[in-house]
Amino acid sequence: MTTPLHCRTFIDNEFRTGTETFDRRNPATGDVVAIADRADAQTVDAAVSAARRAFGGWGTTSVFERGALLRELARTALDRLEDLATSMTLEMGKPLGEARGEVRKFAQAMRFYAEEAERIGGETIPNESTDYLSVVRKEPVGPVAAITPWNYPVELVGWKLGGALGAGCTMVVKPSEYTPGAAHILAECIRDAGFPPGVVNVVHGGGEVGALLAGHPRIAKIAFTGSNATGQELFRTVSGVTQLTMELGGSCPMLVSRHADLDLAAAGAVRRSFRNAGQICIAINRIYVEREVVGDFTDRVAELTRALTVDDGLANPDADVGPVTMEEIRDRTAAHVADARERGGRVVAGGEPHPAGGLFLQPTVVVDAPHEARIMTEETFGPAVGITPVDSLDEAVEHANAVPGGLAAYLFTEDLGETMGVSAALDFGNVAVNNVDAGIINAPYGGRRESGFGSEHGRAGLEGYLQLKHVRIRHTH
Ligand code: ADP
Is the CB of 232 under 6 A from ligand 1? Predict the structure, then answer.
């Protein structure tokens, strides 16, 4: 058993010890792996004040200096790759190999935003009189807050951090109460990279601490990733005219044409349904397959699913699936499978308790659940997926668009006409065709409808932290 990591408040580049703590237990073993200081209102206020003070200097620093520090943060994070990855595996269960990949992607995001910051430009606009010139400057919005979930504890902080710091904003991070360790180690990486005091601050705690931060009048913008229910609550808590971006997940569909490469489609379905135990906002929840290929496709998916290794991801870093992170997910996954069965769905892989018990679940595939079944309409956020035949791709699009969220959709077809037509008809912020990796760092990533608003990744992920200023200059020739 490892010694629990003490996760402390990080303000002005210093760690402070609080009075009240909370524990985090390893979902694979039940052992306490982290003890974190819970921030109170005074601590949140101190963190915001530090970010506010630091903004004066940081907001006007040269973009090249900001870029250099972001590159340095990529380096200090890679130096701590094993510590960061181990902390994620211990706190939320993803296999170590996957966790290591997440740290590499964090470093990639820091390098991307270091470069992107150097390209912050502006505009000049002619006036009616040649004695005037309008200059449009892009300036940072101010101190911002990041409120993040536990499923990607390092990357989801990283996207916000890279865009915000690159733009010249300072930040207070409130990581998930399920993964304080990764954020604590990231704070050490920030300190070691040499950022000025107050540029990044970290406060720990649950929703009550998130609400204190969101309601703080001196925060200029909140970048939130989390559940729809919390997003709605946050919307009501946010103080005054604070800006807000929200990535709220959703029930993501996959559409399989009779013209698909079925091996490719089946491999994609299994990867994106069960990676991170299905606990991904862009996980495939429901698969619509043209009737004439549904049998072949399902056989392949069932076989690949049965071959997945479910294990403790620390003992077996190459496991495909670790435990789910919390009981709520285990119970909801079981409820969705039970509901599908009751409505006539057939389980073709998994569906039984895993021999390891606890939070280990068998990845489960259900076919022929009706369209109204919970597995076909709600976000399971666990290792279960539904497959249902459709008579045409038009029908598949109709079902795909019928749920309230619109984050990511997947299409498999070798037909160009279908690729163009279906990708245009899907009302989702991200559409991946013949692949299941909808998010890449240099392209915008965001949801539609109940999946939220605003983009992360890409140039848009930096622009969201900038505001325009029109400077109209009268001059003589
Ligand atoms: P998930 O289950 O995806 O982690 P949550 O929405 O429960 O999603 O949590 C996402 C983040 O929002 C976490 O850091 C959590 O502590 C925080 N949070 C939860 N409730 C609130 C709230 N009312 N106001 C602000 N932040 C909150």
Answer: no
- Closest residue CA from atom 19 of ligand 1: 207
Nearest partner of 381 among 336, 321, 319, judged by Cα = 336
Closest ligand 1 atom to residue 147 Cα is 14
DSSP states of 162-204 as a string?
A: HHHHHHT--EEEE--TT-HHHHHHHHHHHHHHTPPTTSEEE--
Mean pLDDT throughout 292-307?
98
Whether the Cβ atoms of residue 369 and residue 322 lie closer than 8 Å to each other: no
Q: Is 139 in the pocket of ligand 1 (CB under 6 A)?
A: no
345, 375 Cβ separation under 8 angstroms: yes
- CB of residue 180 inside a 6 A radius of ligand 1: no
Testing ligand 1's pocket by substitution, the residue of 151, 176, 236 carrying the most ligand atoms inside 8 A of its CB is 176
For the CA of 230, the nearest atom of ligand 1: 6
- Other C-beta atoms closer than 10 Å to the C-beta of 399 total 17
CA distance 416 to 289: 18
Q: What is the average pLDDT across 93-118?
A: 98
pLDDT tens, 4-63? 999 999 999 999 998 999 999 999 999 999 999 999 999 999 999 999 999 999 999 999
Q: Is 350 helix (H, G, I), strand (E, B) or coil?
A: coil
Among 3.40.190.10, 3.40.1190.20, 3.40.1080.10, 3.40.605.10, name the CATH number for the domain at 5-248+451-470.
3.40.605.10
Nearest protein CA to atom 26 of ligand 1, as residue: 210
pLDDT digits (tens, 9 = 90+) for 218-248: 999 999 999 999 999 998 888 777 899 999 9
Q: Which residue has the tokens 């991307």?
A: 112
Domain 252-440 top-level CATH class: alpha beta
- The whole-angstrom separation of Cα 347 and Cα 253 is 19
Provide the residue type at 211 as one letter. Answer: A
Query: Which residues form the catalytic set?
Result: 247, 281
Is residue 279 lining ligand 1, measured as CB closer than 6 Å? no
Hey, what amino acid is at 179?
T
Nearest C-alpha to atom 27 of ligand 1 is from which residue? Answer: 207
